[in-house]
Hints:
CATH superfamily of the largest domain: Umud Fragment, subunit A
Structural class: alpha+beta
Number of domains: 2
Shape: elongated
CATH architecture of the largest domain: Ribbon
Number of helices: 3
Amino acid sequence: MPETEDEKLEETAKNTEPEQPQKEKKESVWSILLPMVIAVIAALLFCNFVARPSRVFGESMQNTCHDGDLMILWELNYHPQRGDIIVVDNHNNSLNGNDPLNKNLIKRVMAVGGDHITVSQGTVTVNGKKLTEPYVKEKVWSGSDVDLTIPQGKVFLMGDNRSHSADSRVIGPVSTSRIIGKVCVRFYPFTAVRTF
């Protein structure tokens, strides 16, 4: 005896009923996983191309930054400006066949391409103007004298702890291609959070 239309509908409903909970379960798993996957990808892209965390090593930037401070570096479309605190990839930057500073450096930009800088007797002059530097740790400091014009595509860097900083006075101007990013936020220690 041929099935009626009602019987066909009833049979179809029976066949599909067990599948609905499985389908709903799959959809609920994806509704949880998909936003998590998107968030992880977005975070990785942000950290690789926009901003990234970095840690301060050493004492060359005291009293502005201290050993162990955690910073956020801004990378996206960054162009160095005088006074910026930056992190530079100094790996494999040899000096007379040696590599005394085979690590990332955190320093302050003192001069950019085209600037004329002189460093003498504890003073810094850029383009004929003596700099007022309230951030320098010691008011009287020593180091190599400098008198040069910075080539285009390079920056002259110095630490704020001048007597204890191996910087452009030692390694010379640094290529802007080595700049990892500008320090924009110190987020640790939590008691010293600030922007730069």
